[in-house]
Design goal:
Elements: H1 7-53
């Protein structure tokens, strides 16, 4: 199908497909990274919730950052 198009159109299609594939690969890397750290994020959230319940946490003072 592409062979019937002029070469400049073929090149644009190829470039578009490369960008699309790169986006898919980037998304896959993000998903893998997120999945690897999800257990740690859940544990950190549980710890924070526990510390808040025990009165060991205080609100962040953004003026001190």
């Amino acid at each position: 199908m592409m062979e019937s198009l002029p070469e400049d159109k073929q090149n644009k299609i190829v470039e578009h497909l490369r960008e699309y594939i790169q986006d898919l690969q980037d998304e896959e890397k993000w998903n893998n990274s997120f999945n690897k750290t999800q257990d740690k994020l859940i544990a950190a959230a549980k710890l924070a919730k526990q510390q808040i319940a025990e009165g060991k946490a205080k609100p962040i003072d953004y003026n001190q950052l």
